[in-house]
Amino acid sequence: MTYAKRIGPRGAAGGGEVLLEPYLSGWRGLIRFLQSLGAVFSFISKDAVAKVALLEGHQQQHGFVSLQSLVQHELAAGPAALRARSDSGCRTVLRLHRALRWLQLFLEGLRSGEPRTSVLCTDAYNASLAQHHPWVVRKAATVAFCALPSRDAFLEIMNVGSQEEAVAMLGEAIPYIGDVYSITQELFTQHKLLDLP
Ligand code: 1PZ
C-alpha cells in the first residue's frame, strides 16, 4: 500500500497529484494478494490485471506521470470521443477508482474488529461497486465473498506482523487510500467523467 505515499501532504484540499507509477504498483500488490487467496477470486483478479495492464500500456505509450496528465491527454480529443472509447484510460481508472472505495470501506471494517469478513466485504461491496455491476456479477461476487478467510487468518496473511501490528498498519494506510480516492473523485467530478460507459 505504498501508492499513496507520494501524492503530497495529507488533507491538502484539491492538492496533490496521483502519480501513476506508485498507483499502478499499489494495484499490482493488491492483485498479488487477491491471487494468494485462491482460485475463487480469479474472475476478479483477471479483470483487475487486464485493467492495470491497459493503464500500463497507456502510461508507456504516452509517458504519463500522473492520473491528472492521463485525463488531460484523453480529454484533449473531446468528451464525445472519450465516451465512445471502450479502452480509454479514463473509463479504466474509473473502474479501479470505484474498487478503491470498496477497499477503503472493507479495510475500515477489518480494522473495526468485526470478525465476519464475508459480511464486511458484502457490506463494503453493496455500498460501492455493486451499484455499477449487473446482477450476474453481483451474484458471483457475493458467492466468492463467502470463501474469504476469517478476520484472524486475514490479518495473519497480510504478513505485517502480529494482529495488533496489522491493525496499526491499516490505521496508517486507510487515510492514504482515502486521499487517493478523494483526489480522483474530485478530478473526475471536475471533468464530468464519473459516468463514463
Ligand atoms: C478480499 C476479497 C476481494 C474482493 C474484491 C471485491 C471486488 C469485487 C469485484 C467484482 C468484480 C467482478 C469481475 C469484473 C467486473 C467488471 O465487469 C467490472 C466493470 O468493468 P467493465 O466491465 O466496465 O470493464 N470491473 C470492476 O468493477 C473492477 C473490479 C476490480 C476489482 C479489484 C479488486 C482488488 C482487490 C484487492 C483485495 C485485497
List the helices and strands and how they pair.
Layout: H1 20-36, H2 42-62, H3 67-75, H4 79-84, H5 89-112, H6 117-126, H7 135-145, H8 151-157, H9 163-190
Helix pairs in contact: 1-2, 2-5, 5-6, 5-9
Bound molecules: ligand 1PZ.
Residues 30, 33-34, 41, 43-44, 47-48, 95, 98-99, 102, 121, 125, 129, 137, 141, 148 line the site of ligand 1PZ.
First and last CA, distance: 28 Å
Globular, elongated, flat, extended or rod-shaped: what is the shape?
globular
* SSE pattern, N- to C-terminal: HHHHHHHHH
- The overall strand count is 0
The CATH architecture assignment turns out to be: Orthogonal Bundle
Oligomer: single chain
Which runs of at least 5 residues are low in confidence (pLDDT < 50)? 1-9
Radius of gyration: 17 Å
Determine the CATH superfamily.
Glycolipid transfer protein
Bound molecules: ligand 1PZ
What percentage of the residues does DSSP assign to strands (E)? under 5%
Task: Provide an overview of this structure.
This protein is an all-alpha fold and 197 residues long. The protein has one domain (2-190): Glycolipid transfer protein, GLTP (Orthogonal Bundle), CATH 1.10.3520.10. It is 68% helix and 0% strand. It has helices spanning 20-36, 42-62, 67-75, 79-84, 89-112, 117-126, 135-145, 151-157, 163-190. Helix 1 packs antiparallel against helix 2 (42-62). Ligand 1PZ binds at residues 30, 33-34, 41, 43-44, 47-48, 95, 98-99, 102, 121, 125, 129, 137, 141, 148. The site of ligand 1PZ has 18 residues, from helix 1, helix 2, helix 5, helix 6 and helix 7.
